[in-house]
Design a protein that fits this description.
Shape: globular
Structural class: alpha/beta
Helix content: 25-40%
CATH topology: Rossmann fold
Order of helices and strands: EEHHHEEEHEHEHHEHHHEHEHH
Largest sheet: 8 strands, mixed
Mean pLDDT: 97
CATH superfamily: Alpha/Beta hydrolase fold, catalytic domain
Strand order of the largest sheet: 3-4-6-5-7-8-9-10
Low-confidence stretches: none
CATH class: Alpha Beta
Strand content: 15-25%
Distance between the termini: 51 Å
Number of domains: 1
Length: 294
């Protein structure tokens, strides 16, 4: 065993905790599923693609639904994973299918990847996407007063960074712009990310990791006023993913906010997100419940 670098893990052990593609069998097959199911979703669902919400070429989002014209429907925004440095919105259109079929609107967000941008800029882009959505959802048949969000892996981190935003001061929006959140396999403390193999590409320093760690920027609002939050992950994921979830949940509850931890049995990091393609899966049901859809 080598010299400990974080919580008793040596470098090799810490890298293993966060190397999801190595830990998951047939990870490439899951990515291929994301892409094929997403292409099918774009071909089957009513959608408006590649809508610009910011100045850079990467700041784009796709809107799916509603399936029928009528009253404004609840809106769900999804933020993709890829450890902030891989994949894009086109790989995750499939998450829209059960949401639109249940009567909602789904929005899949793109953002610029590291190391081409800093973590601060990446977080800013996702906040800008949500602000844009609140201001423009009504033009596409969505209800801006019924926005929920979810994200996987890096997207789970970004969901909780959205919940840490001062929407009034920074964007002139209602503080409760987000009505519910589901963070799937999220990273809530970036210090181990800074210390593991990932940082060779991400290039975060200690202060960048600290200020972009959700555990260090919990919502500064009265107890009980935060939106309901579900934290979940695959039961076959690493000990570090489970620990990060438990620590963040405890901190959220200590502030007096509603937080549920609900692991998804039998799934690892690469398979758990694929269950969002299934309208009956536990993950999809969590999101539908927050949206008020059956």
């Amino acid at each position: 065993m080598g010299e400990p670098v974080y919580r008793g893990y040596d470098q090799e052990a810490l890298d293993w905790q966060y190397d999801n593609r190595r830990r998951a069998r047939a990870s490439g097959e899951y990515v291929a599923f994301y892409q094929s199911a997403s292409l099918a979703a774009r071909n089957a669902l009513p959608c408006t693609l590649d809508i610009s919400f910011g100045p850079s070429d990467a700041e784009l989002l796709d809107i799916f639904g509603p399936a029928k014209p009528g009253l404004p429907v609840p809106v769900h925004m999804f933020i993709h994973g890829g450890y902030w440095r891989a994949l894009n919105k086109d790989d995750f259109s499939f998450v829209a299918t059960p949401i639109v079929e249940a009567g909602g609107m789904a929005v899949v967000v793109n953002y610029a990847l590291m190391p081409g941008v800093t973590m601060d800029e990446l977080v800013r882009q996702c906040r800008a996407a949500l602000a844009w959505l609140y201001q423009n959802a009504g033009d596409y048949g969505g209800d801006p007063d019924r926005i929920t969000i979810s994200g996987h892996s890096a997207g789970g981190h970004l969901v909780t960074m959205m919940l840490a935003t001062d929407w009034g001061a920074d964007y002139g929006l209602p503080q409760d712009v987000v009505k519910g959140g589901v963070a799937l396999s999220g990273l809530y403390d970036l210090e181990p990310i800074r210390l593991c193999y990932l940082n060779k590409e991400l290039g975060m320093d200690e202060e960048t990791a600290r200020r972009n760690s959700p555990i260090n920027c919990l919502p500064d609002i009265p107890a009980g006023t935060a939106p309901p939050l579900v934290l979940t992950y695959g039961s076959l994921e690493s000990e570090e993913f489970a620990r990060q979830t438990a620590v963040y949940a405890a901190a959220w509850r200590e502030r007096g906010h509603d937080c549920t931890v609900d692991p998804i049995v039998g799934h690892h990091h690469m398979s758990v997100i694929s269950t969002m393609a299934d309208r009956e899966s536990p993950l999809t049901c969590m999101i539908a419940a927050q949206m008020g859809l059956s």
